[in-house]
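During the no-cost extension, the postdoctoral fellow (Dr. R.K.) reprocessed legacy sequence entries with the updated structure-token encoder. One reprocessed record is reproduced below for audit purposes.
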Amino acid sequence: MLISFLICFTVQAQEKLYPNMFPLKDVSLLNGPFKHARDLNIQTLLKYDVDRLLAPYLKEAGLVPKGESYKNWEGLDGHIGGHYLAALAMNYAATNNAECKRRMDYMITELKACQDANTKNHGEWGKGYVGGAPNSAEIWSTLKKGDFKAYRGGWVPWYNVHKMYAGLRDAWLYGGSNDAKDIFIKFCDWSIDVTAGLSEEQMQQILDVEPGGMNEMFADAYQITGDKKYLTTAKRFSHKSILDPLVKGVDNLDNKHANTQVPKAIGFERIGELAGDQQYKDAGSFFWETVTKNRTLAFGGNSRREFFPSVASSIDFVNDVEGPETCNSYNMLKLTQDLFRLDPSAKYIDFYEKALYNHILSTQHPEHGGYVYFTPARPRHYRVYSAPNEGMWCCVGSGMENHGKYNEFIYTHQNDSLFLNLFIASKLNWAQKGITLKQETNFPDEAQSKLTITGGKSKFTLMIRYPNWVKAGTLGITVNGKAIKISQSPSSYVAINRLWKKGDVVELKLPMQTTVEHMPNIPVYASIMRGPILLSAKTGQDELKGLVADDSRWGHIAGGKKLAVDKAPIIVDDHPDKISERVAPLKGENMKFQFVNEKIINPEKLVLEPFYKIHDSRYMMYWMMLSNKQYGSYLDSVSSVEKEKLELQNRTVDFVAPGEQQPEVDHAMQTENSRKGVSHDQFFREANKGGYFSYSMATNSLTNLSLYVRYWGAEWGNRDFELYIDDEKLTTVKNTRRWELSLFQSEEYKIPETMLKGKKSIRVKFKALPDSTAGAVYYVRLLTNK
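Re-encoded structure tokens follow.
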């Protein structure tokens, strides 16, 4: 009944699918950090070459590209185009930018030509197809027949095409293009056709390879058309190995690729919402609860090296420089919006606000507009930024969208209520009520906001968010100067029902506190928060290698020198919960603070400021916080381990983390009779039945190298195998019952100069002997010799 109403009722923009949201055109940003970010992002978007973005689609359709495909991330060629189309549509809807509209329309015209050409040229498998995934013909024609070899050999094909599904949906949703909607529905029908012959078991097999948000797309198609075949397909694209545990309230996310799972959860929620299926609703809700409460850092991001760590491996947040990925938060915010639509609870906005300010806003460079992939939490590390037409990472694609929709969740509505969710300077036109209003605020520089009804008269309930970071009893609300009695607690909404009219003024006082938030599972590290804002400190600009990334394969990683964590500033305090007494505002500065009467080891001149304002610098996001008793013994052990790690890092020329998706793709892995897995909270790869696995590793033209390999010291069975360098045997490794010790063991194998001379890269192969297993191998490095 609800779905039919939504389909038939003439509405605009997000309300077509998301009935609690206002059209982007009806919410205008006023001057402030979010408007600056949105306007700068439009300038950045218009520097990209549309024909180069479209080239993969034309190529796969058998048409002649009008530009050269972008070189970076070649195996994922085509994934950026859908994000770009969505970003154009959002910014056109929000600002009426004519060039965004022109480019959007041009892309839709070209994509329609691609769809028509695929239908004509690839009738056996391509009717309705409009993807740019490399080797599309072989991948999809063989997948349709149940042969997944080419599919598994490609780079996440469903993830790739999902981006264009979402782009076409958004071109209709935000940009109002009915042509985009028509292409989208035909594209959905293509997916149904290409998977129609697959059994349920085979569907689950293909979902083992990152599928993006395909289940969400079919749920959306169901809502758009009312045709239940799309809902059936949405469920077929739902990964049971993730869905079933979540339904039971079981967190089985340890060591899983984080951004593979978040889009699945979005799809679960959408299916639950539209089908009224409680199990799917429960799965989406529980996923959100466990990720935000157990797996999220102080700035709202999650994962390291793209994977969810276990409790035991959470220290990786400190050790690694590949911190939380921007795409993860992009998708977590989408899931949060969906959950809030069904249950308008303030807890969702508390998280949304934290991630929006501290992660999303911080991932755009405020001058050149570049996007960030990884945000390291490691003390005294830094981030790198993309440049237009260079690094075409996944977080460039999501970044294109992130900064174009800041106005979509400031206000929402439900029945007769208007929800004030975020304290962002803006104007709202609530056409249904004939009401216009303006929110004036300099938050977070000022802990207050003012709402003025600028036009109209209507009776409704204004729902004002009482944030979780405002101390109980300190929120202040006045209407036309008269104080409102507040009985609610933090993380709730205060309801004010009255006849609102032009000239009414609501003033909010939002006092912020300075608090400490500990790192999940690593309580010795903590961050300092001011209200919802993460306070961080700049710690120098030395050796910021690759600050603006080039087009290299690993340019998105801040690969500069790691600085020893035991040499970073350390807070020694027996009462860290009283940090507010030792952090004082800098006179004459907004949201800048300094330590007073605090014991700091390795002191520097430290100024605490919002993390989203820190760029082109190393920084402290998390601080080691020790009691006086802890300080001596703990630091001695940290110093010893840190010295060993840095020595290894300084000798490393290249490395692979076997079993992890991205590093293996990056190093052109080849395998036969090989499998990956997780054991002892670490990923591994092994091969048997005479099989092998190999990686292409860079040598930097050096000839004084050794191969470093990490094993587990207590493996069962025969573990003898051969090591090869470019098909020339380096050595035979005999690990069968070698150590009998339940600890990781590392070995170095010196590589003869003759195997390295004149080579920029080598292929390292681990080959199993008969009736034995090669591995398990947990880490591989090329090291310079001591």
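The first strand starts at residue 27 and ends at 29. The radius of gyration is 27 Å. The remaining legacy entries will be reprocessed before the final report is submitted.
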